[in-house]
Amino acid sequence: MQVAQEAIKLFNVQGAIDSIAPLGFGHINDSFSVKVNGHGYLLQRLNTNVFRQPEIIEENLSRLLSHAPELFPLHLRGASGKYHEGKTDNLWRIQEFVQDSYSPTELTVQELSEIAKGYGKFTAAFKNARPDQYAEGIPGFHNLHHRLNQFQQALETNSAARAESASNEIRAIEEYSWIADQFDNLVEQGLPLRVCHNDAKAGNCLLSKKTGEFLKVVDLDTVWSGYALFDLGDMLRSMLFNIPEYEVQLDGLRFDQKRFETILNSFLAQCGDALEEIELKSLPFGGLYMTYMMATRFLTDYLNGDIYYKTGYPEENLIRTRNQLKILDLTRDFLSPHS
């Protein structure tokens, strides 16, 4: 905890430190819960192995916090006036904990609605923002062709000697490649770029413990240009079936029309007027696009020996892949543009 204690000194946080404890959520950054004079903060160390141009993350964060501060927790600037402080390979930031808030895990229908409203409010707030002013912190982050190329490279290299154990999943990834072609068609038809969250899952929204209503959007490292279907698609991918990415038993899962309509309609209630017709028509397809992309990314990391995502056991990325593929199988007839 010593390194976290030293990091707090980089920011204008007054008073004695009451406690510091690691927080285990998130695939990428190291997070700590901090209390100073009874006041709660979230301290994070930016993973510069993933975000290799941290100046982009700083610029994006500064711009979006200025554009719509009411949507996000209060972030504190450091001694240099920036939100990220420290050495290039050891950068920290700190934000206030939002009082009486929580990130939902059970995902009732009401919670689904509030989360979708939150991301809808985000989309509406940035409807006139210029996507070209928000650079990609991870080049090709949601570029499916890029992810498929990475998958092919991992398959050909087979550096962790795992290809044989994932033969069924490899075949499934190859069979679902038509999703990339469908997306290309949408872009050719004029699908517009927007400022997107690009990681729109339940854990990145805070709801009120008192009322259950949406409060804030968090985890802002991936806010840059994208398409509206990315964020709606991520909600469908991660919330439609309400299963953890590492869940092993998936028997009995069924497409839930009520949950689907709750997510879609709650999102559109906040931002439908800000979207073009081609976006409105393409939103459900985002569920296929984002699920397929995550299946591809999990399998790529498994083939590479788990060098990107945090894992607790050797098969975890393979299990994650299987779960995403199961979701694809269950939703393709409902979310395909031709359904």
**What integer value in Å does the Rg equal?**
20 Å
Main sheet overview: 6 strands, antiparallel
CATH homologous superfamily placement of the largest domain = Aminoglycoside phosphotransferase (APH), C-terminal lobe
Which CATH architecture of the largest domain would you pick? Alpha-Beta Complex
What's the helical proportion of residues?
Answer: 40-55%
End-to-end distance, in Å?
53 Å
Structure class: alpha+beta
Give the tally of β-strands: 11
**Count of the domains:** 2
Instruction: Kindly identify the CATH topology of the largest domain.
Output: Aminoglycoside 3'-phosphotransferase, Chain: A, domain 2
What fraction strand?
5-15%
CATH class descriptor of the largest domain: Alpha Beta
From N to C, what is the helix and strand string? Answer: HEEEHEEEEHHHHEEEEHHHHH
Average pLDDT score:
94
Unreliable stretches, pLDDT < 50, 5 or more residues? none
Q: Which word captures the global form?
A: globular
Number of helices, counting only DSSP H or I runs of 4 residues or more? 11
